[in-house]
Inverse folding.
C-alpha cells in the first residue's frame, strides 16, 4: 500500500530548481506580448480611447479595445451562472475599477507596457457605491444554489426562553488570494482551434467557458495548466489573461502572452468579498444552546451571481431546537468576487465561533466544554445522520495535546513581562463530496500504465497523491505509473476547487483501474479503459458528509503597542483517510497560516473618495511573514469516509476555517476585549 | 520601464560629472523605475566608488561610508557597542537580502511608502507637484500625526534615519562646487508647501559619508519599532532613544520618532522635559505627553498618538532598567 505513506512530491525537484515551466515560461515561436490596461475609475464610461501615440511606438502591433475587438458571447457563464465580467472589451461601460479596457500587443513585454503608458483614455465618471453594509438598501437574499436556508423550530420563542442571548455583529474585510504565481496565459490559434497554456485550477472547465465565449466547439479548445503556482480559488474562474490572450492572438494572427503584474492581479482578479454577519445565539443556564440565528451579508457585483456561504457552521456544528440561517447579497460597483480558500466557511466560522465563545463567556462555562455539550447526533437542520463525525475526538485530543486542562478561564490576567497571554479554541466543519470526472488508463506493452486525467496540481501535491492512488488501484509501484494531468484534452474533470479535486479524481482513477483490470486478462496490449463517474455519483445521499477540525491558539498581546503575535497553533483534523500525510499536513498548515494571516493582517482597502483599491501590492496588502508564523502542528484523528469508495475526503480548505476565530478568542482571553472585526490590527487592540 | 543610460563611476569626480541619478543598492530606485514613479534618463552606479568603509573619526566618532551596506553597518562591532540603536534600526528594516544591497546613502534618500505616491495613475503632490494629496481625506491610517500640511501627509520610511537624527549624525557630501555637510536633524526640511523637496542637499550632491559623533549617551541606546507584522513591514511608529542617568538624574537624553512625520522626528520637547530631572516613569510619561501635545492626527490615525506616547515611555523605562 502506497496510500497512507508520507512521500515527497514528485515534481519537487523540478520546482526548487526552477525547471518546472509555469504558464509564462513556456517558449512559443513567434510570440507577441499583451499588456493589459485597466480602468482607473470606479464606475462610468470610456469617453475616448486614443491609441495613435501607442501605435506609433516601436514594436507595438495592435491595441485592442471595445471599438475593434471581436464579439464574444454575452451569455457565457461561470459556476454560478451567467457572468457579465467574461465578455471583455465589448462596450464602453466601466462597471468597476480594474476592469480591463484595452490590451496593447507588441513584440516585447516592455514595448507593450510602453504602449500602454502612451494610451490616452478619458472617462465619464458616474457616482459609484462601495458602501458595503448588511442593511444596505440594495441588499437582497443570496442565491440558494447551495440549498435552502435553514429554518427549524421557533426562533423567537427559544430566544425568549434563553438565559443568555449573544447578539453581535462581526465583520471581515475584502481579502485577496495572493498566489505566488501571477495570472498568465499564452494563446494561439491553428486551423480554427484555440490552444493555450494558462494558469488555472481546472483546464477542462475553463475550456468549456472559452468555447462558449468564443462560440466554437469545446473540442476545438485545448487548455494546458501543467504547473500552477498556487490558486486558493483565485484561478477557478476563466481569467482575463486567457480571454485577452485568445482575442489578441486571433487579432494579430500570432501567439500572444498576457502575464499580469502583481498589481494587476490585485486590481483585475476577484477577491473574497467583505462580510458583515449578525449572529444571535441563545442558551440556557446549563449551557445548552436553544436558538441559533446566523444572518450573513456579503458583497458582490451585479455582473455575476456569487455565493459566500457564511452560514454553513450554524447548520452543522451544534444541536439547538431553533436554527435559522439567512444569507444576504449586496450588489456594489466592485470587481466580481471569487471563491477564496474555504469560501463562506472561513469568514463564517470567524463570526459564528466567536459568538459561541461569547456564549461561554457570558455563562462562565469553559468554551471547550460548551462546544462538547452541544454536539448533535444527527444533522440539526436536515435530520440526516452524519456518515462520519469525529469532531469530538478532534476537540478532546487537541485539548490534551495543547494542555487546555490547565487553562485559567479568566481573561486578561496572565502576564509575561509586558505581554498578556491567552489561549482560544474554535472548531469548523466543511462540506465534502465528489464531482463528476473521467479518467482513462492504458496498460502498456512494457508493463507500465499511462493514466490520463483532466485534473490539475495547483501546488497541493495532487500529482503525487493521484500517482499513489493509481499504483495501489493497479497493484503496481509508482514507477510503473505515468500520470498525465493538467490538460483539457485529457478528459472531463472537476477543477481543483471546493476541496473536491482530489476526491473526484481519485474516484475516477480507481473506477477506471477497476474497469481496466476486468479487461486485462488475455487482452492484447496496449489496452485502455475509460470511465466517466457522472452516472456513479449519488446526488441524494441519505447521510451528511463533512470534514471537521478543532483549532487551538495561543497568543500574546502587548497592551502598550497593540501588537498581537500568535505563539502556538494546533489543528486536529478529521478528513477521512489520508492519502499522503506529508502533503496533507502541508496543505493544512498552509491553510492555518492563511487563517492566521486573515486574523491579524489581511485587508483590502479602497479609497473612500475614488473607490479604487489602495492596497494593490504586497507592501500595502500584508500577509503573514515568516516571523509571524509560530510553531504549528496539524495532525489527523483516525477517520474513514464511508460514502467514498476509497474512504477519502478533501482537505484543501478546512485548515483555513476556524483558525481566525481561535485566534480572536485567544486575544479576548489575553486582553479581556472581544475583537469582532478582522484583521486584529494593532490599532484595534491598543487601549487609548 | 523607460529606457535609460547607465554608467559606472570609479571616482567621486567622475560620478559628479556624469550629471545623472546615483544608483546605489537600487532597492528603492529600481523598484520605483519599474512602476514609473521615477523616470531618470541617466544612472551613474556609485558602488564602485571607494566609499564603502567604516572608520573611526579623529575625535573618536564613527564615519560610515555612503556605499557601506546596511548589513555591514549593522554588524560592525563599533556600531553595536557605541551606537546600538543604529544597528537595531537597520536590523529592524526590510529583509536580509535587501540589507545586503541597501546602502547608507540610499537608505537616507529612500522615498515615502504612501500608496498613492507609489501609483502613478493617482494624483500626488510629492510625485507631481500641484496635483493634490488624495491621502489627506483618503486612506491614511499609517500617515503623519505631526508637522503635516494639506499638501502632503506622508511619513518618512527610514528606520536608520531615526537614531541618526537622535544622535545628531552629520551627512557629508560632494558637489562640483565643493564639499558640504548637514546635520541629520536639518537634513529633511519641514514638508510645508513643497513635499517634492525632500532634503536640503544641493542638486547633484553625492553623499560620501555619514558621521556619528561621540557622545557617551549613545552607548545606552535602543531602537524599537512597532509594525503591523513581525517583520518585513515599515514602522507604524518607532522610537530611538538614549539615556544617561547619574544619581537618579538625567544627564543626557536623546529621543527621536519614526513613522509620525514627513521626516524623522527629533523629540526635543520630550528631551527638554527630562534633562536634569529624575528618571522616573512619571517623568517619562510627562515628557512623552509634552512631545505629543502638538500632534494633529488625521481622521483615521489618532491611535498613533497613543502608540507614540506609550512607546516613548516603554523604551525610556527599558533603558532606565538596564543600568
Ligand atoms: C520590500 C522592502 C522592504 C523594506 N523595508 C524597510 C524597512 O522596514 N525599513 C527601512 O528603513 N527601509 C526599508 N526598505 C527600504 C530600504 O531600506 C531602501 O530601499 C534602501 O535603504 C535604499 O538603499 P539603496 O542603496 O538600495 O538605494 P537606491 O535605491 O540605490 O537609491 C535610493 C535613492 O538614493 C539616491 N542615492 C543613493 N546613494 C546616493 C548617494 N551616495 N548620494 C546621493 N544620492 C544617493 C538614489 O539616487 C535614489 O534616489 C525596504 C525596501 C524594500 C524593497
Ligand atoms: S501624502 Fe504625500 S505622498 Fe501621499 S499622496 Fe499625499 S502628497 Fe502624495
Amino acid at each position: 500500500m502506497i496510500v497512507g505513506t508520507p512521500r515527497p512530491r514528485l515534481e519537487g525537484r523540478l520546482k526548487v530548481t526552477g525547471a518546472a515551466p509555469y504558464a509564462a515560461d513556456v517558449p512559443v515561436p513567434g510570440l507577441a506580448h499583451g499588456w493589459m490596461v485597466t480602468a482607473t475609475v470606479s464606475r462610468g464610461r470610456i469617453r475616448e480611447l486614443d491609441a495613435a501615440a501607442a501605435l506609433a511606438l516601436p514594436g507595438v502591433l495592435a491595441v485592442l479595445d471595445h471599438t475593434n475587438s471581436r464579439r464574444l458571447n454575452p451569455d457565457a457563464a461561470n459556476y454560478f451562472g451567467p457572468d457579465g465580467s467574461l465578455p471583455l472589451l465589448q462596450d464602453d461601460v466601466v462597471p468597476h475599477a480594474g476592469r480591463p479596457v484595452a490590451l496593447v500587443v507588441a513584440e516585447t513585454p516592455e514595448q507593450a507596457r510602453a504602449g500602454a503608458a502612451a494610451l490616452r483614455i478619458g472617462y465619464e465618471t458616474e457616482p459609484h457605491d462601495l458602501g458595503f453594509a448588511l442593511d444596505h438598501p440594495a441588499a437582497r437574499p443570496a442565491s440558494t444554489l447551495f440549498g435552502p436556508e435553514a429554518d427549524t423550530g421557533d426562533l423567537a420563542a427559544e430566544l425568549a426562553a434563553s438565559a443568555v442571548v449573544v447578539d453581535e455583529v462581526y465583520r471581515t474585510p475584502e481579502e485577496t488570494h495572493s498566489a505566488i504565481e501571477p495570472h498568465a496565459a499564452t494563446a494561439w490559434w491553428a486551423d480554427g482551434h484555440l490552444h493555450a497554456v494558462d494558469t488555472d485550477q481546472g483546464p477542462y472547465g475553463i475550456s468549456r467557458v472559452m468555447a462558449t465565449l468564443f462560440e466554437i466547439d469545446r473540442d476545438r479548445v485545448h487548455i494546458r495548466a501543467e504547473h500552477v503556482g498556487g490558486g486558493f480559488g483565485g484561478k477557478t474562474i476563466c481569467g482575463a489573461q486567457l480571454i485577452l490572450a485568445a482575442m489578441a492572438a486571433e487579432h494579430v494572427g500570432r501567439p500572444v502572452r498576457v502575464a499580469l503584474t502583481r498589481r494587476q492581479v490585485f486590481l483585475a482578479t476577484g477577491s473574497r468579498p467583505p462580510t458583515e454577519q449578525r449572529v444571535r445565539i441563545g442558551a440556557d443556564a446549563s449551557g445548552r444552546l436553544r436558538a441559533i440565528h446566523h444572518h450573513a451579508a456579503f458583497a458582490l457585483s451585479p455582473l455575476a451571481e456569487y455565493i459566500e456561504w457564511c452560514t454553513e457552521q450554524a447548520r452543522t456544528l451544534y444541536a439547538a431546537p431553533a436554527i435559522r440561517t439567512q444569507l444576504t447579497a449586496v450588489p456594489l460597483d466592485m470587481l466580481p468576487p471569487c471563491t477564496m480558500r474555504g469560501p463562506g466557511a472561513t469568514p463564517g466560522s470567524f463570526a459564528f465561533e466567536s459568538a459561541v465563545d461569547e456564549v461561554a463567556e457570558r455563562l462562565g462555562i469553559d468554551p471547550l466544554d460548551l462546544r462538547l455539550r452541544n454536539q448533535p447526533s444527527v444533522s440539526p437542520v436536515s435530520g440526516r445522520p452524519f456518515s462520519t463525525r469525529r469532531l469530538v475526538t478532534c476537540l478532546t485530543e487537541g485539548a490534551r495535546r495543547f494542555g487546555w486542562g490547565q487553562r485559567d478561564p479568566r481573561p486578561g490576567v496572565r502576564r509575561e513581562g509586558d505581554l498578556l497571554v491567552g489561549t482560544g479554541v474554535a472548531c469548523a466543519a466543511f462540506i465534502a463530496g465528489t464531482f463528476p470526472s473521467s479518467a482513462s488508463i492504458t496498460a502498456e506493452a512494457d508493463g507500465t500504465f499511462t493514466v490520463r486525467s483532466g485534473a490539475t496540481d495547483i501546488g497541493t501535491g495532487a500529482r503525487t497523491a493521484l500517482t499513489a492512488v493509481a499504483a495501489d488501484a493497479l497493484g503496481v509501484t509508482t514507477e510503473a505509473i505515468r500520470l498525465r494531468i493538467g490538460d483539457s484534452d485529457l478528459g472531463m474533470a472537476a477543477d481543483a476547487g471546493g476541496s473536491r479535486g482530489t476526491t473526484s479524481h481519485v474516484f475516477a482513477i480507481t473506477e477506471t483501474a477497476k474497469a481496466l483490470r476486468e479487461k486485462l486478462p488475455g487482452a492484447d496490449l496496449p489496452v485502455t479503459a475509460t470511465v466517466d463517474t457522472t452516472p456513479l455519483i449519488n446526488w441524494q445521499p441519505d447521510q451528511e458528509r463533512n470534514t471537521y477540525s478543532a483549532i487551538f491558539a495561543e497568543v500574546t498581546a502587548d497592551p502598550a503597542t497593540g501588537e498581537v503575535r500568535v505563539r502556538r497553533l494546533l489543528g486536529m483534523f478529521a478528513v477521512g483517510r489520508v492519502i499522503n500525510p506529508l502533503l496533507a499536513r502541508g496543505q493544512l498548515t498552509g491553510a492555518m497560516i492563511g487563517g492566521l494571516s486573515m486574523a491579524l493582517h489581511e485587508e483590502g482597502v479602497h479609497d473612500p473618495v475614488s473607490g479604487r483599491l489602495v492596497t494593490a501590492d504586497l507592501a500595502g496588502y500584508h500577509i503573514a511573514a515568516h516571523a509571524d508564523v509560530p510553531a504549528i502542528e496539524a495532525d489527523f484523528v483516525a477517520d474513514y469516509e464511508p460514502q467514498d469508495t476509497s474512504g477519502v475526503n478533501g482537505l484543501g480548505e478546512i485548515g483555513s476555517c476556524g483558525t481566525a476565530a481561535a485566534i480572536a478568542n485567544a486575544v479576548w482571553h489575553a486582553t479581556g476585549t472581544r475583537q469582532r472585526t478582522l484583521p486584529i490590527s494593532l490599532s484595534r487592540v491598543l487601549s487609548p | 520601464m523607460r529606457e535609460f543610460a547607465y554608467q559606472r563611476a570609479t571616482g567621486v569626480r567622475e560620478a559628479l560629472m556624469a550629471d545623472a541619478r546615483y544608483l546605489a543598492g537600487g532597492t528603492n530606485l529600481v523598484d520605483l523605475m519599474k512602476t514609473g514613479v521615477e523616470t531618470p534618463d541617466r544612472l551613474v552606479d556609485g558602488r564602485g566608488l571607494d566609499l564603502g568603509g567604516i572608520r573611526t573619526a579623529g575625535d573618536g566618532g564613527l564615519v560610515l561610508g555612503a556605499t557601506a551596506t546596511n548589513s555591514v553597518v549593522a554588524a560592525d562591532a563599533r556600531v553595536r557597542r557605541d551606537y546600538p540603536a543604529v544597528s537595531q534600526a537597520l536590523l529592524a528594516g526590510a529583509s536580509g537580502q535587501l540589507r545586503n544591497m541597501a546602502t547608507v546613502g540610499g537608505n537616507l534618500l529612500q522615498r515615502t511608502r504612501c500608496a498613492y505616491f507609489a501609483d502613478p495613475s493617482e494624483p500626488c503632490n510629492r510625485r507631481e507637484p500641484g496635483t493634490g494629496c488624495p491621502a489627506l481625506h483618503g486612506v491614511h491610517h499609517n500617515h503623519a500625526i505631526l508637522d503635516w500640511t494639506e499638501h502632503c501627509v506622508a511619513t518618512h520610511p527610514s528606520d536608520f534615519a531615526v537614531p541618526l537624527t537622535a544622535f545628531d549624525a552629520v551627512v557629508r557630501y560632494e558637489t562640483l562646487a565643493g564639499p558640504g555637510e548637514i546635520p541629520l536633524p536639518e537634513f529633511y526640511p519641514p514638508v510645508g508647501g513643497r513635499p517634492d523637496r525632500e532634503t536640503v542637499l544641493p542638486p547633484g550632491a553625492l553623499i560620501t559619508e555619514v558621521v556619528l559623533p561621540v557622545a557617551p549617551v549613545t552607548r545606552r541606546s535602543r531602537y524599537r519599532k512597532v509594525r503591523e507584522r513581525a517583520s518585513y513591514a515599515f514602522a507604524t511608529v518607532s522610537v530611538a532613544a538614549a539615556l544617561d542617568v547619574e544619581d537618579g538624574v538625567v544627564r543626557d537624553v536623546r529621543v527621536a520618532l519614526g513613522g509620525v512625520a514627513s521626516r524623522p522626528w527629533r523629540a526635543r520637547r520630550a528631551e527638554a522635559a527630562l534633562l536634569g530631572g529624575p528618571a522616573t516613569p512619571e517623568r517619562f510619561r510627562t515628557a512623552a505627553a509634552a512631545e505629543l501635545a502638538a500632534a494633529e492626527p488625521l481622521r483615521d490615525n489618532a491611535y498613533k498618538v497613543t502608540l507614540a506616547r506609550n512607546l516613548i515611555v516603554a523604551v525610556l523605562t527599558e533603558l532606565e532598567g538596564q543600568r
Remarks:
- Chain A has a mean pLDDT of 97.
